[in-house]
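Researcher: Structure prediction, please.
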Amino acid sequence: MKNSYAKSEETDWEVRPGGMLVQRRDDINEDDDLHNKHNQETAASAGGPMIKISVSHGPAQHELFVPAHSTFVELKKEIAQKTGLEPDKQKVLFRGKEKEDTEHLHLAGVKDKSKVLVLENRASKEKVKERAARKEDKVEEIEKIEDVSKAFAAVAGVRKEVDKLSERVAALEVVVNSGAKVADEEFDVSAELLMRELLKLDGIEAEGEAKLQRKAEVQRVQSFHETLDKLKAINSNPFNNSSKAVSVTTQWETFDSGMGSLTAPPPTSSSTHTMQDWEQFD
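Model: Predicted structure follows.
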């Protein structure tokens, strides 16, 4: 009885809010219980108890706690949090062999306090470079398409202006060929406007079909320049216009003697044949 009493004295009691008298538990033991309970729940949800794994990554060493039934891809996720190396860039080796992502730790022989080696996957690095290169190529292709579209639009804009100027040149041609006098400023202004469009074409960077269209438009502008130069020359000296020139033909009257003819008369024979008639007397 005495022992029972002594034991009750050694035991701490506390009153709960509802008035119930219960034995007080040590705070440390209570925290340990909660921690163990959490680990057990985590292990139960993941499948298998928690194990400690040593991870070597370069000169660094890391310790990870993972469920024993985890897969290697799940282990890679934990390693990524420690090393900063993304899972798809990791190469995990256990006992000198690389492990597949879908393989489970416990089936591969990984136990508590096992060691794994982590390397950077060179193939993954190459894939990253390849993806980056493809991305750059795609960007360049898009930019090239945009440049071609801009070139087509620029050439089309010049063509529209040249069409208007072609009407101006055609009108000048009609007036000059009719014999009317045109001020020289009209030719100069038209030539200046054509030169501006020619400079625009020279500043257009084009490839392929757009380049061919630009070349055709340049030739068209140069042709109009040549037409203006001819019209200006005719306008300055109307008599140079062969279509308006007067054709004069002189006709000469031809006589039998050849006088007045442009053709010399045929030569006459220098020998003279003389016939004499003699009268006879008886």
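Model: Strands lie at 13-15, 21-23, 50-57, 60-67, 90-94, 97-98, 114-120.
Researcher: Thanks, that helps.
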